[in-house]
Design goal:
121 residues, elongated
Length: 121
């Protein structure tokens, strides 16, 4: 049985600080987007002055906005989780193969738990 390698320190503090700043900026942007989406999602009352077709369009647009809101909230949760894990020793290592995750991958997907190779499997 192959032993799991000890996690080595691969990210210097400058890289960690860069990731923290990027994640914090993305979190702030997501929070603004979520606030905007929440303000646009309002129930459509049946007695509104909409015609039948425009009411159906409004309901369809509302469903699209609700789906976008769910996606943004999920992404926000992942970003917050990544921000709490950046200082942990296992952060930046693939969950499957235990190899380092490329820094550029972590910059674009801070919550990545798999390297490119394992993510493609």
């Amino acid at each position: 049985m192959k032993e799991a390698p000890l996690y080595k320190i691969f990210m210097i503090s400058e890289e960690k600080n860069t990731l923290k700043k990027l994640v914090a900026l993305q979190i702030a942007e997501l929070e603004k987007e979520i606030e905007l989406l929440e303000s646009t999602i309002k129930p459509i009352s049946p007695d509104s002055a909409y015609g039948r077709v425009s009411r159906m369009d409004a309901i369809n647009n509302q469903a699209i906005s609700e789906a976008a809101l769910r996606d943004k909230k999920t992404l926000l949760d992942r970003m917050n989780f990544a921000l709490t894990k950046i200082d942990h020793a296992e952060y930046g290592f693939c969950f499957r193969c235990k190899e380092e995750i490329a820094f550029n991958r972590l910059k674009s997907i801070p919550y990545a738990s798999h390297c490119i190779k394992c993510a493609g499997r």
